[in-house]
Amino acid sequence: MNISGRTRLFPIIGDPVAGVVSPPAVNAWFQANAVDACMMPLNIPALNIAGFWEMLRASNTFLGCSITYPHKQSAYAQVETMTSRATRLGALNTVRRADDGSLYGDATDGTALLQAIEGADISVSGASVQITGAGGGAGRAIIDALCEAGAAQIILEDTDAARLAQTVALVEQFWPNTSIDDKGPADIMIDATPNGKNATAPTLFAPEVVSGCKAVCDIAGQHGQSQLLKTAKQMQKIVIDASDMGYCQVQAQMAFLFQDQTAF
Description:
Layout: E1 8-9, E2 12-14, H1 22-32, E3 37-38, E4 41-43, H2 49-58, E5 64-67, H3 72-78, E6 81-82, H4 84-89, E7 94-97, E8 103-106, H5 109-119, E9 128-132, H6 137-148, E10 153-157, H7 161-174, E11 179-181, E12 188-191, H8 207-210, E13 215-218, H9 227-234, E14 238-240, H10 242-257
Parallel strand pairs: 1-3, 2-4, 2-5, 6-8, 9-10, 9-12, 10-11, 12-13, 13-14
Antiparallel strand pairs: 5-7, 7-8
Helix pairs in contact: 1-10, 5-6, 5-10
């Protein structure tokens, strides 16, 4: 990658950012599409985030930014405009900077996993989906996308009752045609927690529950290495891991970043 005085910046901000995996994939996309831009991780403590938003507005070197924990809610409060799904979810993971310094936000986590599921020839429309980690930011975005795609039934699990209640309220308000239940069976199983990052951590879904589904998704498990994905593969289920979602995340973020441009 050649860095020049014209190279635009698209940082991923968070605290910590040491474990982020986006930069290689995003930079490969920039190179493949002849975009003179670069993603780099930028660690910003929450106490200093206001200074970053000022810098983002001030410099047209920035295309915008990608956002991870703990800044998604802060971003929501900073942008002038946002997509309807971001408005529903109350958090952003992508910000696009306009030439005048104004900011436009989106939340693409749910879109990314939906595209990965549909890319595996699994139909969400009319399906039953069980998701653990349903109260987290990623889990809520995924549920919103699945409901929008026509999921008939969702089975929600989370260890935080207050966060789970917020997700239930979201579904009841915006997606009344999707029923909410507390037990399966389900066509699609999703682990939306960080559990899969630990390859030795016990699965959060019992094997007998996995045996009745068609597909298993682990948004944190890399290359099928989590215990959940190993169990699913042994049962010959369709498996979607963090790499599959990550690929679709890049496509979704870049589509948003450049959606109004006919040339890069």
